[in-house]
Design goal:
homodimer, alpha/beta, Aspartate Aminotransferase, domain 1, Aspartate Aminotransferase, domain 2, seven-stranded mixed beta sheet, globular, Adenosylmethionine-8-amino-7-oxononanoate aminotransferase (chains A, B), cytoplasm (chains A, B), PyrdxlP-dep_Trfase_major (chains A, B), aminotransferase (chains A, B), biotin biosynthesis (chains A, B)
């Protein structure tokens, strides 16, 4: 039997994959990956695929990265994990300090968790709890339409993703959505008016406004302009609403600056990070906050913020994150990315030649366009055709995007673009 | 300056520790751990501490375990991580198959996540969603008084832990508690009557009854008898309520059987596992379910269970989990534990000689007693005294417990017991 089939059939027997309608795999191959190196994934027949989506936006410095692997192995031979209540360790102390420093000390404390959803839940709880301690009862949250913040119930509640949440409506916490501008919008008056109407009516009940700055990644890569961000956040701050930036997908230089908020003229109260933080190696997330918030929880036991997860601050994950920061320090990643981003975008614009391609856009190392077509099973079809051509692509509805590891080189970029041309020519 | 202080002061400057009132560290040392091996943790002054709580109940085969470390390094040199939607890999396929097999195929599918809270949220969502697909609108959950299931909002909602959740009451989802028997109860009629009253009134609205079988660990190590579990679960099943067992803390032989439910005569609909699953190395959790549940989500896109986390099914964490299962296969862990458990309990009973010691109890490799005293800051005092004597102890309120890595030997056990005697003599 085909070597891939042996593994994939066993997988289908025992594994329920995330974010997947499993019946899709009656038609679309569930591809088993044997190993990976750089931008390449290898299946059990030794066929190579370029990871065009950084394995769900986590892998920035390539698979089997030698430096990260080396630092991780060193940590294995020292301390793999220790409870973080009452105890601490050097990898997490170094990481916390460095995260504050690369944020220009805009934040002074780090609170860790294991995944993005948990980080979002922590930020929501912290904002609510801080307000509660200040005598303010604010049980509402505000978020942008088309937003995505995770899958645990509270994170899902503040996300605007119909199919992911409609079923659970009787379980969700209270949230208000304000309309987000899209890529083409440059007049934000109606959006700001909508926001102001909400704030006028509900601000005294809203703990926090949570925002994915610059790009709503899961929201079909909606890239909106920083002017809206600046104005919306300043307005919310005037109404005494906390600001949470969810940079889980865009943090660590994806949008061209180390963090997306650095392109704005504001600093949020809370910053949620995950995904690329460990270079795509291990689950790790963090909420960064300011000392003025931390101080609210400091005092007698009744003021405690008692959130925890067993593996909070796992030393192995921290070692990977420190290695990632080493790479940022030792290599001129952000400037090299600028050259790479310009090269990719030059070629990406070739897709404007297809009449079905709309809203072609990019921001830093994220490239996208929408396909205006009536093809059934568009996403499955693209995924399948991409695999045939040695690409891992995963369109979001009718949006095709390219979000590669930063280490991709020009030859690999050309391979992706050339083959995406072939795919579009076949299906359009 | 003292080497520990250098690290701990930097830690206090940048890190907000989980489950901690940070002001406690004005008096109690925040101890930095440099390395760990076996049951021993070493601080920056090279002082050793026995990890009496398996680093929050995660570490079962010791720190820097050579076998787990070796298997983890092999995985680093092959595949560290790949998106699990549309893709799969051998470590997770092997792990899923093995988890089903060591559960005697009572469950046929595995759905992965990164921490216990997320696993609980997945189980709640899955039960609710499955019922929804079957045309049943059941927006309530049922759990035991004194229960603990995690910190994300939905997991917290079904937990009965005042100080952790009271603040957030306006954010919580709807839950009903039924009283749990305590260690000393052997007549369960009033408990079962209370449960029946709830079921009679609300069963058509209750999706699932979630239970920590045999021991409510965070609930001050409340060990209740299996007879209650059997009767309560059978009753709930008669009322068409799903059963979720949260074995995050007790799974993987902590209670003497591989999973706690194996001491009962029932099999739950969902089994949540985490903590010891990776041997205390990496964040990983799983919800095990049956094909009849999986099949409900199989079909057109509208039936999809679309939960995901970026690092779901991380290959490195799966490699650790497979190594843990290897150790269970290759060494007679459960039977060796029985001998060790008997030895510990023989010595543990020496604490009955203190008049303040009440409810001395054990279950498998968990040993506990309550201290009836009026000492202020009892838990901080025990923690501090324990550190002085080279022990990591972390009482739950007035409950002292011992939950060591399984690899602890008799000399180390004696050291713990002898020093706990000294501590009690000093403070009582």
């Amino acid at each position: 039997m085909d070597k891939n089939k042996v593994v994939s059939q066993l997988s289908l027997k025992y594994l329920f994959n995330p974010c997947t309608q499993m019946s899709e795999h009656k038609f679309l191959e569930l591809l088993p990956i044997k190993s990976a190196k750089g931008v390449y994934l290898y299946d059990f027949n030794d066929k190579a695929y370029i990871d065009c989506i950084s394995s769900w936006w986590v892998n920035i410095f390539g698979h089997q990265n030698e430096y990260i692997g080396k630092k991780l192995k060193e940590q294995i031979d020292c301390l793999e994990h220790i409870i973080l209540a009452g105890f601490t360790h050097k990898p997490i102390v170094d990481l916390s300090k460095r995260l504050c420093e690369i944020n220009n000390n805009n934040f002074q404390k780090c609170f860790f968790a294991d995944n993005g959803s948990s980080a979002v839940e922590i930020a929501l709880k912290m904002s609510f709890h801080k307000n509660f301690l200040q005598g303010k009862k604010k049980e509402l949250f505000l978020s942008l339409s088309n937003s995505y913040h995770g899958e645990t119930i509270a994170a899902l509640s503040i996300s605007d993703v119909g199919i992911y949440k409609n079923t659970y409506k009787d379980l969700l916490i209270k949230n208000i959505f304000t309309p987000v501008p899209s890529f083409n919008d440059s007049d934000f008056s109606s959006y700001l008016k909508a926001l102001e109407d909400i704030l006028k009516k509900y601000a005294d009940k809203i703990s926090a406004f949570i925002i994915e700055p610059l790009i709503q990644c899961a929201g079909n890569m909606n890239m909106y302009k920083v002017e809206y961000l600046n104005k919306a956040v300043r307005m919310a701050k005037e109404y005494d609403v906390d600001i949470i930036f969810d940079e889980i997908a865009v943090g660590f230089a994806r949008t061209s600056t180390m963090f997306a908020y650095m392109q704005s003229d504001i600093v949020p109260d809370f910053l949620c990070l995950s995904k690329a933080i460990s270079g795509g190696y291990l689950p790790l997330s963090v909420v960064m906050l300011k000392d003025c918030v931390y101080d609210e929880f400091y005092g007698d036991y009744k003021r405690s913020f008692l959130h925890s997860h067993s593996y909070t601050g796992n030393a192995l994950a921290c070692a990977c994150a420190n290695a990632v920061l080493d790479i940022f320090e030792n290599e001129d990643v952000i400037n090299v990315n600028k050259i790479k981003s310009a090269y990719i975008f030059k070629r990406w614009q070739e897709f404007l030649n297809y009449k079905e391609v709309k809203n072609l856009r990019h921001c830093g190392m994220v490239f996208a366009f929408d396909v205006d077509c009536n093809i059934n099973n568009f996403t499955s079809l693209i995924k399948q055709k991409a695999l045939e051509k040695g690409l891992l692509l995963r369109p979001l509805a009718k949006t095709i995007y390219f979000m590669p590891p930063y280490i991709i080189n020009n030859d690999e970029i050309d391979y992706v673009i050339n083959n995406l041309h072939l795919i579009l020519k076949e299906i359009l």
